[in-house]
Amino acid sequence: MTKSRLTLLQQDHSHKRLIKDKLVLALVIALSLVTISPIVLIISKLLIKGYRQISLDFIIKNTPDTYEAITAVANGEIIPGGIANGIVGTLLMVISASILAIPVGVITGIFLYENQGKFMANLTRNISDILQGVPSIVLGLISYLWIVKHVTMGYSALAGSVSIAIMMLPMIIRSTEETLKMIPQTLKEAALALGVPYHKVILRVLIPTGFSGLLTGILLGISRILGETAPLLLTALGSSMINLDMTKPTSAIPLLIWEFYNDPNMIDLIWSSSLLLMIMILALNIISKQIIANRR
Amino acid sequence: MINTIAEIKNPILSIRDLSVAYDKNYAVKSVSVDIKKNAVTAIMGPSGCGKSTMLRALNRMHELYENITTTGEVLLNNENIFDMPAIKLRRQMGMVFQRPNPFPTMSIYDNVVAGYNLNGIRVKKSEKDDIVERSLRDVALWDEVKDSLVKKGSFLSGGQQQRLCIARALAFNPDVILLDEPTSALDPIATSKIEDLLVKLKENYTIVMVTHNMGQAARISDYSLFLYLGELVEYGKTKNMFTTPKDPRTEQYLTGKFG
Hints:
The complex is a heterodimer. By secondary structure, chain A is mainly α. Chain A has 13 helices and no strands.
């Protein structure tokens, strides 16, 4: 009698648990779908609205002027021209920002790793964290005051590069430090036990071993600044021609998106430009994910 | 206390009053021993007795960590190791660690000559080839890897990796090889290979190794050193220590009463 009661009770409970289990599973799946839906919606919208503009011309030609755009729209044609000036400007500024930020960031990261728990390192780490939280428009303002007003005496690619380089710095510093921390201490000891001087242990053992980690941090930093608009508005300004002079105003893809938004005749170009930018950022993200996966 | 400095003539290493402290806690307390040349000396003792700490003091590994202080004197061929540059000392005293730690970014070949490459010592390619072959033959790894020298060292099995690490230490022709429980992460077959190897290597090198495997100490060491709570309890020929230990604590340890 007692025994059968017990089994009955157990059955009851297990039934309830199964239902609860399924409910929670359904909730988890539903919320996951909610999380990924924005990115799916964004990309599909960009594809639907932007794919018609994407062609070779779009990549190798400069932005059309308003008159060309009006004519094309009136005739029901696709707006001619492309965003070559923006692509080149973005590449120019991202590359120079990387050249500025990577050495400083990696060296600072090594400093933090080597001086765990010390006052100067903690101070530097905290300041770098604060830097990460500084709104990008403020960095643009600072670069405007430093570079536009005093160095290049006008809007310039250099000023744009400096503003986005400052944005990259904290990410590179953090990822360098975290990567080096993940390298087992025994490897460092192995190198030292061979009589290798300390600076060579860092340069020839730790950095090569953590190289993929460093690269990931750098790629993520770049994908972050690729889409920056606000600081560039105050520093690089924009240009309708391809410009390779660091001291001259330069365009960038996000700047062009902003310009197209403000020109009712060019509105169609927003979608294709955004699509291109999105593809670049996604590609960088996928590459860095791949590097992380290969490292494991 | 028994006089622990055994009657060893022309010792390669003379350790005098060696103490190591983590912050204020002494892990090794005033140890004095002489280490015989071309012999295997085993440092035994239960976990946490300061075996590894003592071994690591010998090539000044503790200098990496600010909270560790080392005092005393260690003479290597009558030269105080604390007076010579650490880089020079470490080239004369190779070290093999508990877990195999080949450089993951380097090939097997580059791992063996890592000491030369990383130090920027220029050696002819033919000489390097010789060093690689000799070192790998010394550790009985040559036949297993001679066709895959360009592969990464981390592709090898644990036992092979550890032999690679010994080869890396041998490549510099050191006077002394320090081994910190070199087989504790390995299976019995790999362990026995490394034990055979160490017995063979003592012809040309002096070997000091930490082990908490008493059987291993009995099998391969000539001299044994028993540490307990950082103090040197007994030191002497392994044969004598295992048959007629002088200190009751050694006897208790060897008979498995503790540890």
